[in-house]
Amino acid sequence: MVPYGNARMESGKVSCQHGEEECEGNRWEQCAIAHYPDASDYFPFYYCMESEGDRMLHNVKKCASDANLDYGILSTCYNGAESEELQKKAAAMTPSDHQYVPWVLINGVKSPSDGDNILEEVCSAYTGEAPKACESLEKSKGWKRCYA
């Protein structure tokens, strides 16, 4: 998950498609992901923020509290240099040729099917023990893959 959307880096500064408030929301969400990298931790915050729509920035504390995230940690990140670094990292992860959002990256590479064949693409790229979903897909496709 990379909260960045259709933002662009211009002269070292991020410019968001929907204005400064979108950039601010992205920064809060980037901080949550950086400090709580497990999706089960950050996603409730992300979902709450996105659900608030135009009132997102007025409800950061509420969303942090509802998601059991420490608002102080998020605020320190958001108000410090770390937030700028996270924006640069998000910009670097954004495919320059994207024409819409969201887009899907698998191992840092844009999905050739734009996520329409996500399970097949993830299973093809996966090198660990096959998850059950991949085993089922392999059986249905007649694949014979070896996993490390």
TrEMBL record:
Give a yes or no for keyword Secreted in this entry.
yes
Q: Which GO terms describe its molecular function?
A: oxidoreductase activity, acting on a sulfur group of donors, disulfide as acceptor
Q: Where in the cell is it found?
A: Secreted
Q: Name one Pfam family in it.
A: GILT
Q: Which GO terms describe its cellular component?
A: extracellular region
Mark the transmembrane ranges.
Answer: none
Name the predominant localization: secreted
Residues of the signal peptide: none
Keywords tagged on the record:
Glycoprotein, Secreted, Signal
**What's this protein's family per the entry?**
Belongs to the GILT family.
Q: What protein name applies here? A: Gamma-interferon-inducible lysosomal thiol reductase
